[in-house]
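Fig. S4 source data, part A: sequence.
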Amino acid sequence: MNCSLAFCGFLLRKTTPKKGGKEGLSMDEITQARDYLLGRCHPSKIIVYDQRVDKEEHLLSAALCIVAEIASPRALERELRGQVPFPIRLTAYRPQEWSFLVRQEDTQARRMCQTGQVLYEQTWC
């Protein structure tokens, strides 16, 4: 997965989570969280890096990472919890932090980048 944050312009690409398989994502629920974040804080990247599903592949909880300029990640997480019908954990990085941390060995940001699923990414125009 390419995690470079070098971009200019505002050509936006929405990616749709895969249904079934080991991801086990509920398209509607994850899309709802992604769309809320896009409207609320205009992130350059959204990654789902952990999720729990039941035997029928219904989403029980999810952990999302966003890369955005936001003042209070905890306040945003509380808001998001009120918008989606499942427990959610939100990790937020500012673009400069993300760019630095994904290049370092053994950081949470690098693990998210390598193993997570990109739900949204701002790309070059």
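Fig. S4 source data, part B ends here. Strands lie at 11-14, 45-53, 59-67, 88-93, 117-123.
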